[in-house]
User: What shape does this take?
Amino acid sequence: MSRIALIIQLLLIINLSFSQNTDKEVVRKIFDNVLTSNEAYNNLEYLCKNAPGRLLGSEESIIAVNFMKDYFEKLGADTVFLQEFSTPAWKCNSTEVSILVDGKEIQLRADALGPSPSTQGKGLFADVIEVQGLEELKALDRVGIQGKIVFYNRPVDMKIVSTFRVYGSAIDQRYYGPRVAAEMGASGVLVRSVGTRIDTFPHTGSTGFKDIKIPCAAISTVDANILSKALKDNNALQVKMIIDAEDIEEITTYNLIADIRGNEFSDEYIVVGGHIDSWFNSPGAHDDGIGCVQSADVMRIFKELGIENKRSIRVILFMDEELYQSGGNAYADYSDANNVNNYLALEADAGGFTPEGFTVDASDSVVGIISGYQSLLEPYGIHYIKKGGSGVDIGPLKKFGVPLMGYRTDSQRYMDLHHSAYDTFDKVHIRELQLGSGNMAAIIYLIDKYGL
Ligand SMILES: [Zn+2]
Assistant: This one.
């Protein structure tokens, strides 16, 4: 090696380690800031207490959007706007499910699945067929199912370690169960809640009807056990279901978008977001108020520390992840129509517990670049950055080749509270929330600085 080449190489090494030191210092500053800031936590408290049940189309969903819009304006975002779109919606007013045992009416704790239709007249009274899944139902004679309520009661598989996979072990009953039962002539469906606790909280969620819609609801795991036992004692037991719900043909609603402009490539957007809606039965603390306030906190951190961003940072609080996923699709359509260059998108919608890592849905080379930042984030709880899924709201950007990322946390408590009234503000720990904001801000800082 010539002397000049040696000098150049030494300079490169010095420069590299200098920038690594600088990055280490910036990341440290991010965490010094975030671990002493209550703003995101306070914002989450507001959302949970003043806008619980903020399902698409509800007044609460708009209260939440307006509150966060004011917050972005207060932060001094360069642009804050409501991205308007139209979509069908659905509303649940009440769900009642009961059984008659020894002449005594026992209420089962239940919440309608979205978009269940209302029951007609005075409600639905029918015999019940308990099954352990779709295959068992499909194997039965259709004649025996006519007019009955199908009760899907297969519990989740608790032997699985990741609770997202535990959820996956029984979600087919909720998503496809009402469709299959309706096609076979059933009059209604009850589903054992897809959750990891035996408790009295029903966990609602979306169901995928095709042509025929029948009333359907989730009952809590305790109530599923009560119903199953009552059926064993009396197989002529009748269930009463009264659901008051309505389809709404079209509403106008919004994604909330706030940008801080980049100083070099301002037309390239690094998107970070969560979904502002929650199910009608839930304050939506972990799902996904926390993803929203953490994403907003990324902007606060950049602003307060005066971090220079080359690319524009775009925080999006998506509407309607839960029911029809209309917000994510509307943003993808908007991006397409306006030639928006989404450089990368990161979604936080997997609970706000202790950080674990990031998953990256992109080419191997992009995964390689981003996973190279793991050692910088390791001291703050990031134990992996690996290929994997991202988030429902940013998913529609994949068709444009946008690299996508998901923020991941310890999943053990998430399915205790997902889609239920148990998902309250007090389940959120401030330091876990802050570590999430910090890691999201840090990874965006690094991606913006070095590019992909
Ligand atoms: Zn969610």
Summary: The longest strand covers residues 79-101. The CA atoms of residues 188 and 214 lie 5 Å apart. The pocket of zinc ion is lined by residues 275, 287-288, 321, 349 (CB under 6 Å).
